[in-house]
Task: structure prediction
Amino acid sequence: QVALEKVLSRRSLQLQNEQQAWQDSSEGWRMIQLRLSLPAYKERDAILNAISHNQVVIISGETGCGKTTQIPQFILESEIDALRGATCSIICTQPRRISAMSVSERIATERGEKLGETVGYKVRLEGIKGRDTRLLFCTTGILLRRLLVDRNLKGVTHVIVDEIHERGMNEDFLLIVLKELLPRRPDLRLVLMSATLDADLFSSYFGGVPLVQIPGFTHPVRTYFLEDVLEKTGYRLTAENQIDDYGQDRAWKSNKQFIKKRKSQIASAVEEALGSADFKNYSQQTRESMFCWNPDCMGFNFIEFLLCKICENEKPGSVLVFMTGWDDISALKDKLQAHYLLGDTGRVLLLACHGSMASSEQRLIFEKPEGGVRKIVLATNLAETSITIDDVVYVIDCGKAKETSYDALNNTPCLLPSWISKVSAKQRRGRAGRVQPGECYHLYPRCVYDAFADYQLPEILRTPLQSLCLQIKSLKLGSISEFLSKALQSPELLAVQNAIEYLKTIGALDESENLTVLGRYLTMLPMEPKLGKMLILGAILNCLNPILTVAAGLSVRDPFLAPLDKKDLAEAAKAQYSRDYSDHLALVRAYEGWKVAEYELTGYEYCWKNFLSAQSMKAIDSLRKEFQSLLLETGLIDNNIATYNTWSYDENLIRAVICYGLYPGICSVVHNEKSFSLKTMEDGKVHLHSNSVNARDSKIPYPWLVFNEKIKVNSIFLRDSTAVSDSVLLLFGGTILKGDIVSSFPPYVYALYESIRCDNFYPFSYAWAGLGCIL
Ligand code: ADP
Ligand code: MG
Result:
């Protein structure tokens, strides 16, 4: 023990000396000056003092004041000074992998080290960390997974949870777990950090803990709402200007009838919205629907115009554009690159900032361009709080963000662009005033802003809880509903019950809510359980490739385009991929065709000819890779991929695996004389979406359809579906088939069902038993 202590204190001294040497170098001196200038530095002593006297401390301060990069370093340095540096272990969680990576790299640079020395990071499938790493940045998900095997966080001295104001599902979940852990680990310190925050809520959740506020400073930001922007720029918001907008492929624009209809919609919406005095009195829903003419409030054309105006007329300074999602960012980037001024790399540096960018691209975002070049960054809400670009002077805010929402009553999830909250709008605005007075252009009228919610609803209250419930079970946290009742804000009981019921139906939980073997595997795959299920069985039954495509396809925007004016042509194009009553198999074929074309460098032409979205195809391609690495990570497959594809061309097998994943999304096909009708157990009569390949035939020679999603517009429509036989549904459709479904099987199938039930055998029990041995 004594010898060990000696070694450790020698190591701590060494750390101290190394830092001193770095600080004495000229680059180190420059970094120190930068760090000293951050507002967080002024509160250094107060922060450290609070942490040493309290188990839990909340720290809040304006974005960019130095919370993420400085506070973990303060703790690290004070531990090193106290010669405990070699024994401390600080974990700091970030909601996104990109921030965990970029922040750790930044801190290593500030300390004159390489990543993996004192500072490291760990995100899913990647990480750099060494023997001496004392400060580890990771995603919240990684810490939750560590808790799975290390319930007491042995050896960890400090946990810092960053960006708690975002109220992500994982963060809320982690807080419940940590709150329970604190009494068991009285020496553990917990620091919660946030930009704008409902401090009382967090403080009282932990029983009235102290709050350290870092006073911030931002330069004034001049704010323009849509009406002011129009006045300032002299832009005429006419229908013609707005046609070329989001989501609409330019090729379809030529259709006159379509344009005419859009024109009148747009014109009346704009007129009503901006001209009418009582617009303020309309309900929020009406206001929102008025802006439906463009999913993101304003078209690309307007953003392009505004960027030009800024580049031509305004003082130097970078521009930050907040967009809804990655698809829109890349589409706008393409458009801008073709513009004579904005595409000129000698004058403009055009960058995209999103969750999966390469680190070389990341560095460019922070760098100040030289020689009068103006930097324009197109970003998602990632740049709202977790990434700070210092030289931004102009902000353009589209007002929307993609948000998962969940309707507990209809039990349907959706990922849709929705209006941001007032707090988010303020954050976005604040990004413009970091270095000098700035300007912010909100591309929506003030009255729409007035109707924004103050705060965004926490994720736990607006998303399906299936994955969360699985995690609660895998962490052995007891009864799901009891555990969730301890959350900062608990989700609706109905939502919890739906999730548990679903997990039981798909066989991930048993009747007494314990994880099954399948359930345990699903907890290791961070994706919707139905996708995980499909992938697991696809790997077991050696038809992995097509199933990877189907699972990826279910997670991106539909790649089959259906432009209004070329509907027939588009349908014919889709029909060439479908011969077997399955939208999912049609997608598999389309993807495979694209892959070949892409290999021959004709991917775009292929998409163009076949009415496919090249963007979705690329997204599917990269998701497939991600899914495959996840399967590798869990040990479900090894690197010998060919062996998992020996049955990849057996369409009936693929159909069965799809059924296994999508169950209980099933509907029965009832044939009558000329056509057929469809029924589900919960809704009664339903319809097929007109884009489905199954909507074109008057007969489907199968008794069942499995589907991924229903949407409700007047009546209920099924989007993509795959036809399956009785026996496939029986063998692959979950473990418990409900009574009325079973009774509608033909007698021979019913007999089979009975015999299976009596033998207490259920499909793949051998396979699952095999998996059980691995675990
Ligand atoms: P907060 O967490 O309070 O929002 P940060 O600690 O992230 O603030 O940032 C503090 C400062 O460090 C900001 O001025 C930011 O621009 C700068 N910074 C952060 N990361 C980098 C980086 N990778 N490169 C250059 N500057 C950075
Ligand atoms: Mg931060």
Remarks:
- Residues 239-256, 276-280, 282-298, 758-775 have pLDDT under 50 and may be disordered.
- Residues 38, 61, 63-70, 102, 106, 366, 388, 390 surround adenosine-5'-diphosphate (ligand 1) (CB under 6 Å).
- The two ends are 37 Å apart (CA to CA).
- The CA atoms of residues 218 and 636 lie 51 Å apart.
